[in-house]
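Morning run. Coffee first, then this:
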Amino acid sequence: MFRYLLLIPLASLIVVNALAEPQEFDAFEASIPELQAAMASGQTTSEELVGQYLDRIAAFDQSGPALNAMLYINPRALKEAVALDRERAEKGPRGPLHGIPIVLKDNYDTANMPTTASSVAMAGFVPPDDGYQVPKLREAGAVFIGKTNLHEFARGIETVSSLGGYTRNPYDPRRNPGGSSGGTAAAVAANFAAVGMGSDTCGSIRIPAANNNLFGLRVTQGLSSRDGIIPLSHTQDVGGPIARSVIDLAIVLDATVGEDPADDQTAGVDEHVPPTFRDYLRSDALQGARLGLLTDYLRTVSPYGEVSNVVRAAAAAMAENGAEIVELQIDGLDALLRNTSVIDYEFTTDVESYLRSSGAPVESISELLESGKYHAALEARYRRSIARARDTEEHGARLLRQTELRRLLVEALEADNIDALVYPTLRVKPVLIGEAQYGSLCRIAAHSGLPAMSMPAGFTADGIPVGIELLARPFEDGRLIALAYAWEQLEQPRRVPQRTPSLVSDTLTYEFVVRGEGIRGELRLDRPTQVLSYTVEPADLEGGDIIDAKLHRGASGPIIALLGESLDGSFAVSNADLDDLLDDNLDIVIYTASHGELRGHIKRR
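And here it is:
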């Protein structure tokens, strides 16, 4: 019932849709309100939306850029959408989520779909009931497209698992999408659904949001229930949305926050829940806001400078539009952050309690290790957690230091009347697949329990997204939504991944011609892979006369690709060079022994 079986029949859909006449409504990059308006006007239906998203999964998850974000496709999604369309016609919509397709991180319990934490040892396991937030979304009318890959048992800030393998970043498939909610973020960025649900224990919502040009909120600890989310640390776990827009994030929050008798952390939280988080969607929220920029985390030396420059530019743009930027250093912050994580001290106990109570096929992390049914990248973390679980004294000391950290941060906010602290979500670019990610500042929010929003700050020169994080006082989640919404309206920071274009209204391939004195040729670019195929024909040359062929940027620019002696081949165009190719700013030069340089200009057909 898993991905590799369910996607086979969908693969044929992409050919049909790519050749068909454009549909009246394209769900690509549409917000939840836009989707609702289209359904209300009869332009589309929930069934058609689900179909479009399934087509995109077929086109881009295992094909094209091969993002590998989806772990399981809900075989009932179309049927559920049809039922919701019928209900809309008969009774009207339940609310803003009626008929809206959503993806769930595969650590959310679903009683009618497997919940595996992306572990082979859990393959096929269906829990006895839904987690708290799942029926809340069902009741609101959401349609679950399926479950997304995560870093196995959420034990990391990359995304690799024994069941799902590596998930790839849609902006550069060589790179890490972030974790542990990397599958959710990659799926949302690539428009596999309208919005996605993730969980955050130390950056697992915010880092994937940053790496995928999305908005991700780690709510105040206790604002939403953890019941039915496979635990990593009961002290630090939260669940919540990852979205392409702030309004989508606010709509999902409205449906999922609040008190839950099964989660004592949420006791009394309803007094902090507004009638709707959409009331905070104010485009003027940056006016007069005081933002504390943590300059200690903005080093300019390599490898930090690239991200620091993007974050400083974003802060400057906020200042130009009414915010007051206050540069801050918080004495003692680094020292506390080094010794406040309780994940290693709670993971084995928490997850084993879940495994036993839910009737899972494996009952402990020790049993998991003995079975060998885990990804090698997780072994050291699993063994470390087993060893540290017995150190109750250090666990207690770290909980006390978390209280001290929260006090220190709130005092810093209060002392200078700061609305939010500002710093990079991740201090470096996403690393290449297979490397260990570093540079995270996830501990600031996760260890203090304070709310934090990661939002798109901009891009590096080679087209990689950068996130900027805002942290506020307890239960000022709405204030963060306001600031993020104002930033979104100001900068429009969302940029679509080039490799996952619309299947309805975009072109999937581009054709080019090469023209120049003594040279002719044709090229074809496949957008989902960014592979450029070329055939070049020089006039009046013997094969042995060709020394080399190279791709240059512009008429006098540098060499950006070495094509060799063969004038018929293909290569992957980098993000940095793609715009130049599409803007007709590249030349092919053939170097010859007897005729010197033969230069041809590349122009889109």
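The first strand starts at residue 70 and ends at 73. Good start to the day.
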